[in-house]
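Possible race condition, two jobs.
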Amino acid sequence: ISNKVSTVQNNCVIKYLQADEQDSAYLVECLQDTQDYLTSTCNFKTYLHGMAIYNFDGRMVSYGLTTPFQEIEGQDWFAVIRDEEQKIAFVAPHYYTIRQQSPSSSRVFSIVRPVLYGGEVIGLVMADIKCALLDEMFDINNINGYTIYVTDSETGALIYAPEDAPDVSIQTLTGGVTGDQGHYFTEEDGTDYLVVYTTSSFTPWTVVGIVERSSIISGFISVRKQMILMIS
């Protein structure tokens, strides 16, 4: 939708975003073509909560449940995309609309790209992805004492934490991050932790694994005991 706007299949998007409001019959025809194209593009994508195409006058076409134009135009990333300062924006988990903030399954994270035509930005496309995808990817059920978090490497904000996650601060999760990947030891409330991190090559998000130092030591001692027993 955003990067291949010259193809025959999605030329309807350009026509719809640029159609004259006065030509209502043509506008409706473009709307129907764009809706059909969007539906065929989005069908069978399990984790897609909704996708919407907007121009900057408030015109939009959508699939699924999406955010109204009046709510997105006030967001910081909106001007960044509109003014061509950025080719993609990742929006941290949020409710798809401020008017519907329950149940928790209505929380999504979003990917936003500009719609380009003739070298100019004529609109934007926003895909809302169910936050359940983050649970499936990062909820490792405390394997070997580890817990996985996701943070925004640009803002330091917490993107994801499992429901039963230890109560640790953002400073603990991000205070020792010095590059794209690495590890460090830190202490909080009398507990020593090992923190291991790696930054995604696609998003500006950092995956952080945290485990108590005592868990590592107990695991080592257990292995040492087994080795001594085997040698004996």
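Job #2 (started ~2 s after job #1):
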Amino acid sequence: MKIGIISDIHSNVQALKAVLKEFNKIKVDKIICCGDIIGIGPNPEEAVQMLIKKRECLISVRGNHEKYFTDGLPKEVHDDKRKMSFDKIQNHKWTQSMLSEESIKFIKELPVEKSIEIENKKLYIVHYPENEEGKYKKHIKKPTIIENQDMFDKINADIFIYGHTHAYSVNNMENKWYINPGALGCPISNNIANAGILDINSGKVEFQHLRIEYDVEKTIEEIEKIKFPMYKEILKIFYGKII
């Protein structure tokens, strides 16, 4: 079975279109999304709707940006105790205001985590592992295999799929796989959308990292056109563009 793996779309529909087009070429059987469908980028409603159209083959969980919608905005961000600024709050509110009732319903129905079994392999899907208090564990962009094992120490699975850090990372030891495909929708200073193909066939597991080129300038132009709250900072931090 071929499974397309994506995470951290962040409302970037140009990147998402390019990846879904590649998935169609490869003829994936399922698509796994590790959350953060919305937030940061210019087209939250369109991004959600594109996934809704893939609902029959889609397995998705909530990211922190979906949680900001369902659970409310936090006072502190992630595990590093940064205060959420007024501008960030306004940006999140703008994103949420763009969503249709259908998209809101879809987001509210997403689970925080998901366990499935494919060809006798147990898959655990989450945006990022949480501690006993329901808070994200330490943010590690390039974990070692030992750090991956610690991150998921209480979960019984063969394949762990997550996102959140925006950094591609794959570790494999003793038939245990830890896969973070990297951010699909936050290119920093390039025109690449990250994704992956997980191939499970007769007990054998393989993973291929995909770096899909797309027209990132269209996304940047859309951000500059809309001028939503905090758009200049977002262009600088997530697209490597200073205006």
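The first strand starts at residue 2 and ends at 6.
Logs attached separately.
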